[in-house]
Amino acid sequence: MGTIEHLGQPEDCHSVLTTRQCFPRQAFRGGSAGPRQIPPSDHHRPPYHRHWERQPDGRALKPTAGMPRHTTRTPPPRSLLLLLAVVLVAAAQPTAAQTCGSIDALGAGRASGKGVTNDAPALAAMDNNPAIGLIYLPKGRYRIATSLTLAKPILGDQGAILQVDSGATLTLKAQPEYGLWRLFDVRANSKVVFGYDTVRVFPEWFGAVGNGAADDSAAIQMAFNCAADQGAAMLYLSSKRYGLGKEVTFTNGANIMSEPDARFVSVKGNTRGVTFPKGGYTFKNVLPHLSGFSDFCFRLYGADLGSFQLKTLANCGDAIRLETLPPKEADIGTVLDNTVWFDSIANSRQAIAVRAGPGCAGDKCIIQGNQVLGSAVTGCAASGQTSTIGFFFTALPMPAWDSNQFNLASVTPCTNTAYSLLYADPRTETAREVVRIGSIGAVAPGAKLFSGKHLVLQSSVNLRAEQPDGAGSLKGLANLVEFTGATTPRAGAAPLNAAKKSGSKASFNGGKSLLTNYVTLRAVPDQAWPPGESQKFYIYHQMATGDLYNIKCGAPRLAATNLPLVSCVQVQDKSKSVKDEIELTLINLTGQTIQPGSQQVTFSVAVATLGSP
């Protein structure tokens, strides 16, 4: 569908009166500032007085003189024709015609617009007048000293200010038609309420500048609070750089919608960005880009059942934080069943942080069932502990923070040696987390994929680059991690010789421990190995930390007996005494003696996976 551009002047001000003839140009186009700034609305379109005529070539319709022009060569939409019919019928009714002066709030005997006299009665009288359809506010200050409800829409010039005095409430039942300028001056103990027929509230109406330097936090907070009073309108953030000099808090009373280039940036040294506190959230909130908040950029603080679409988050302390404290009331502090999407996180100390405050041991605090999904995490803090996903608590038992899911398409670690892909504070542990990493680059030597203790972790990690020795160390019981990509060794590599003596890592795989789920090995005895007898062999795996889980062996089967060539009768994670070491006890089932040095048996081992070797 094409756009509508008003080319001519209407003949009168009958019917709907939002035309240039009645109002100054800037009321529609933002003055000399350029493009039209009035937010799109379904209310009060210009009148249509002409008919469409087909051009001589018969290919398209065109308007007659004075008619708004459809900028594409297509017939008018059916809804436009219906609107035209309605307007023509209304104009034909034998009622008193509206004039431009009849809707002017500064007309004779009406509001003063000087900020001294209480203009509420005059505006109320206009609202109750059935002869007019909207209230036009020329530039001026309209003092609302007593509570006022307006059912008709208001349209104003830039510089028209509604001053709501202390103790007064201004209720707007219809969507205002106003540009991105200040409209309200709300004094202490007063408020503006947006009724059920309103759609959007702009922080500019409350004084936001959006230049990236001014502190817009008070205007944004007030705009949201007014929208949340009845919950009909959303807070709408335009493609501007809004400065936050203090934290803003968005409850479940209203939704947030942001244009693609809307941004919240830290000003005046503010360390805290956006918080969503306790409560259930019905609809998805679309947040702006967030940057520069050294404590956190985005926080769920006791929030439940929310859907949040984030864009980019950069230079944050915690880019995304899930946090709870034991509540003061009898209820349990929870962060439950939220879904958070983000485009990218860059150069933040913790990309995703799960934090439980003091006293959160056990079920006093519950952080469960949350999903965080993102496209890319790049960089981290240059020094100090830093992670892509981090869990923070200072004691045992751990909080009830299990069964959360993290799905990240790409992770590019920084060069900080204190970095971890998945981190748990050493004073606590995590349980039953699901972590899926579509691609991760190499961590720095000394950095880790996993730090701390994790229980029943389920993870899949695609290694974009080979990891340094020791990066894959994982502590905790019953953990399953599926590695793909640049594993050590790569999939399909030639079989490795299993070592025959404990402490022989230097002679195994060139001195580098395994980081893979599946490996093919050769058992080469150092002495005669009769059938039915066992011998011990040794391999070295980065995930062997004393708790390595689900190690299985497999070998080709003999056609005559359908028995494997060898069988693992015992597997021991001996890494507590010898780093990365796994001891395998194999029984010779070939039916013949395997001679030392000259003969060997090939077998496979599967580690930390439900798959078979």
Ordered list of secondary-structure elements with their pairings:
Elements: E1 4-5, H1 26-29, E2 52-54, E3 61-63, E4 69-70, H2 78-92, E5 114-118, H3 120-128, E6 135-137, E7 140-144, E8 148-150, E9 154-156, E10 160-164, E11 169-174, E12 184-186, E13 191-197, E14 200-201, E15 211-215, H4 217-228, E16 234-237, E17 241-244, E18 248-249, E19 256-258, E20 263-266, E21 272-280, E22 284-286, E23 289-291, E24 296-304, E25 307-309, E26 312-314, E27 318-324, E28 333-336, E29 339-346, E30 350-356, E31 362-368, E32 371-378, E33 386-392, E34 399-400, E35 405-412, E36 419-424, E37 430-431, E38 434-440, E39 448-451, E40 454-455, E41 458-463, E42 480-485, E43 496-497, E44 518-523, E45 534-540, E46 552-554, E47 566-573, E48 581-588, E49 601-606
Parallel strand pairs: 5-7, 6-9, 7-10, 8-11, 10-12, 11-13, 14-16, 15-17, 16-19, 17-20, 18-21, 20-23, 21-24, 22-25, 23-26, 24-27, 25-29, 26-29, 27-30, 28-31, 29-32, 30-33, 31-34, 32-35, 33-36, 35-38, 36-39, 37-40, 38-41, 41-42, 43-44
Antiparallel strand pairs: 1-4, 2-3, 44-49, 45-48, 46-49, 47-48
How would you describe this protein?
This is Pectate lyase superfamily protein domain-containing protein. Residues 26-75 are annotated as: Disordered. With 613 residues, this protein is mainly beta. Among the domains are: 4-92, no CATH class; 496-606, no CATH class. Strands 15, 17, 20, 22, 23, 25, 26, 29, 32, 35, 38, 41 and 42 form a 13-stranded parallel β-sheet that branches. It is rod-shaped. The protein starts with a strand and ends in a 7-residue tail after the last strand.
